[in-house]
């Protein structure tokens, strides 16, 4: 089966870097395959800002800026590929955001690491990748 749009959820972890490399290998087979890189930022907003009606949480802005910068670097590393590539930053729960993104954007293959930068969550054997495998409407290629 040939794929037309591949999604790589990217958080900067070693396993997401491996997933990106695998996706690049797949892209080299056909330059019509589109690559989409998605970074999902989980931001625990400071209750002070929401309680007092402030919408500009400096911590939130800092996290979003860092995610965009990381994806700009990834984008530059993909410039040699003839394939169409796009990068997106979403906010929220990574597992839910990945599955929603796939459903809304016609992705037909996800290439992702088995674990990311989840800290304590990693005790649960990659809870994000587990959820995505269970709920994704398309095949999921897991990199270890």
Automatic annotation (TrEMBL):
<comment type="similarity">
    <text>Belongs to the universal stress protein A family.</text>
</comment>
<dbReference type="InterPro" id="IPR006015">
    <property type="entry name" value="Universal_stress_UspA"/>
</dbReference>
<feature type="domain" description="UspA">
    <location>
        <begin position="2"/>
        <end position="143"/>
    </location>
</feature>
<dbReference type="InterPro" id="IPR006016">
    <property type="entry name" value="UspA"/>
</dbReference>
<protein>
    <submittedName>
        <fullName>Nucleotide-binding universal stress UspA family protein</fullName>
    </submittedName>
</protein>
<dbReference type="InterPro" id="IPR014729">
    <property type="entry name" value="Rossmann-like_a/b/a_fold"/>
</dbReference>
<dbReference type="Pfam" id="PF00582">
    <property type="entry name" value="Usp"/>
</dbReference>
């Amino acid at each position: 089966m040939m794929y037309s749009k591949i999604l790589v959820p990217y958080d900067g972890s070693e396993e997401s870097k491996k997933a990106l490399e695998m996706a690049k290998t797949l892209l080299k087979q056909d330059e019509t395959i589109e690559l989409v890189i998605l970074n999902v930022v989980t931001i625990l907003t400071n209750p002070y800002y929401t309680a007092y009606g402030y919408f500009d949480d400096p911590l939130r802005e800092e996290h979003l800026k860092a995610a965009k910068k990381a994806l700009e670097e990834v984008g530059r590393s993909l410039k040699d590929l003839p394939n169409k590539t796009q990068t997106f930053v979403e906010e929220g729960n990574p597992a839910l955001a990945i599955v929603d993104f796939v459903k809304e954007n016609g992705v037909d293959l996800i290439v992702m690491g088995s674990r990311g930068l989840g800290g304590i969550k990693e005790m649960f054997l990659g809870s994000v990748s587990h959820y995505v495998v269970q709920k994704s409407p398309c095949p999921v290629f897991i990199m270890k």
